[in-house]
Amino acid sequence: MKLTAIFMVVGLIISISWVAWGFLPMLAILLTTLILGAIGYILDILGYSINDFTQRLLKRLSN
Fold it and tell me: Is the pTM of this model over 0.70?
């Protein structure tokens, strides 16, 4: 559930930034938050974790 929360917060931050720089309907904020939340939820279900992701990324960067 950590990835779900992270992706939802990222979606909310992106949406609020869009509104701050120009008017977008509230629907854009909700859709972005829900879409990124759904991505995080799917990644949670598939068993991805931030620790595994960072380990794989660091391993690839070190080679």
Answer: no
